[in-house]
Amino acid sequence: MIIRKAEEKDIPRILELLKQVLQIHADIRPDIFIPGTTKYTIDELAELLKNKEKPIYVAVDENDVCRGYAFCQLQEQPFSNNMVQFKSLFIDDLCVDQEARGQHIGESLFEYVKSEAKQLGCYEVTLNVWAGNTPAEKFYEKMGMRTKERQMEYIL
Q1: CB–CB of 70/56 below 8 Å?
Q2: What CA–CA distance (Å, rounded) separates 58 from 1?
Q3: Where's the N-acetyltransferase domain (predicted)?
């Protein structure tokens, strides 16, 4: 398994994986996610690939087929009188093809993201997990992550 920056040739496969992730979210929160859709269009993905502040990393097999991805965003703590300024690498989305799970692809992607974050001078790697996505929570805890804050909602 090789991990590299995503390229335009990866877009069709990334779209397939985005559908898998969306379905997980739609199963958990059918009140807000629309099954059969994706977070990005082909054109939006092509633009994202050009954005150095939002790197996308892919794990590819020996045939250069994308088996997983990590969408990331470089973020800086805004100026505040009471907080130290720092950079974070936010994982907006991490997915491993459901047919390739259990092969440590997610672990490899996460370790790669951590390494990239260090090279970029980041203080931390962060992400959000939807309540109810217990497999993701367990995976990230296994990778050494811990809860930083909780966002709560009241549905009207």
Answers
A1: yes
A2: 10
A3: 1-156
How many C-beta atoms surround the C-beta of residue 1 within 10 A? 14
Both tokens assigned to 64: 């250069």
* 67-79 pLDDT, tens digit each: 999 999 999 887 7
- Tell me the two tokens of residue 101: 């799970």
Cβ(138)–Cβ(37) under 8 Å?
Answer: no
Hey, what CATH topology would domain 2-142 get? Aminopeptidase (3.40.630)
Give pLDDT tens digits for 85-99. 889 999 999 999 999
Element (H, E) at 110: helix 105-119
Residue that the structure tokens 């805004």 belong to: 78
| CA distances for 48 relative to 42, 45, 115, 123, angstroms | 10, 5, 21, 23
Q: Which residue has the tokens 């440590």?
A: 104
Residue 12 pLDDT class (50, 70, 90 cuts) = very high
Strands 124-127 and 87-96: parallel
Q: CA-to-CA distance for 62 and 151, rounded, in angstroms?
A: 40
